[in-house]
Amino acid sequence: MKLAVIPGDGIGSEVIDSALRVLRRTSRVIDSGISWDVFDWGAERWLTDGVGLPDGAPHLLRANYDAVLLGALGDPRIPDMAHGREILLGLRQGLDLCVNYRPVVLPGGTVHLYRENTQGLYAGVGGAIRRGGIAEVAIDECVYTRETVERFLRYSLSDLQRRGSRRVTLVHKSNAVPNTGSLWQDVFRRELREFPDLAGNEQYVDAFCYHLVRNPTQFDGVVTSNLFGDVVSDIGAALMGGLGLAASASISPDTGFALFEPVHGSAPDIAGLGIANPYAVLMCVVLLLRHCGFDIPADALEQSLSDAVRTEVTTPDLGGIGTTDQFTGEVLRQLDLK
Ligand code: NAI
Ligand code: MG
């Protein structure tokens, strides 16, 4: 298996170091081994030669690698995040990564969240009417094509079926946002007919947030549009115990090609201190291994992570006294015990 690794900025490269230590160990138990190339796309390169995502990058990744592992992007010297948007949005759109899967792992079960990742309010359609350089009217349009909603829902529903899920909730706001809202409802109801084992229901996003916080594990599968998914999955991260724990996979429904990244950003407030929590990136490695068909090492790593998180060498965000290195060392120790 060959991976493209993009450490990115701030704690991105610190947690990726941890992931590479674990991948080196996991490589030994996989017949073909695991190799990778590291790409320096991020703030440093943007500031020195003005390159964010090099031309042809999506094709290069798709043609030469089995999957992408990304740390995080974001640098205080680039306050508008121009480089991050170019790289992240460029990869999402260029690789057609319209399904974003974010598991919310809780003691009572896992909530499987799927967010559409390329259209909606993030489609980049809009503009502003300015007077003397000051915006008086600003517009961001929510754009959805039936084709994208269909491809997104088909993939997400079949993924849920494969996981053995029995229930799926569509999160929407069709009372206030009727056009895209009813497009989503229509496609959801049609697609569900193909999945008789999945019971579907629909919830307004505001009510959903309320119920998610009150009793998260009443939900099993959740499918939603781009903005709602972005917001709701941060609630999921908080329910799990923090951003340092939340992992995500972005997948192309047509090719199955996928990019794995922690939900957190580059955390400039703790960058360089060596205390970033690598749990989220290591959960990304679990998702990556499983996606590529390596279930046994994925299960072993997931179990090692949950054992390591019960020791005192967890990082300070979880109330522990450990460093990134020490926590990674504990995960490797747990793996050796298996
Ligand atoms: P952030 O996720 O980087 O940090 C929020 C808070 O959580 C901070 O206090 C940070 O120390 C803590 N935190 C995050 N990850 C942690 C970890 N693994 N271990 C321990 N503590 C952790 O979000 P923030 O501060 O809003 O954004 C910082 C930069 O990251 C910005 O430039 C932002 O645009 C970018 N960003 C990038 C993302 C990406 O690459 N996909 C996602 C979110 C933000
Ligand atoms: Mg977000």
From TrEMBL:
<keyword id="KW-0479">Metal-binding</keyword>
<feature type="domain" description="Isopropylmalate dehydrogenase-like">
    <location>
        <begin position="2"/>
        <end position="331"/>
    </location>
</feature>
<keyword id="KW-0560">Oxidoreductase</keyword>
<dbReference type="InterPro" id="IPR050501">
    <property type="entry name" value="ICDH/IPMDH"/>
</dbReference>
<protein>
    <submittedName>
        <fullName>Isocitrate/isopropylmalate dehydrogenase family protein</fullName>
    </submittedName>
</protein>
<keyword id="KW-0464">Manganese</keyword>
<dbReference type="Pfam" id="PF00180">
    <property type="entry name" value="Iso_dh"/>
</dbReference>
<dbReference type="InterPro" id="IPR024084">
    <property type="entry name" value="IsoPropMal-DH-like_dom"/>
</dbReference>
<keyword id="KW-0520">NAD</keyword>
<dbReference type="InterPro" id="IPR019818">
    <property type="entry name" value="IsoCit/isopropylmalate_DH_CS"/>
</dbReference>
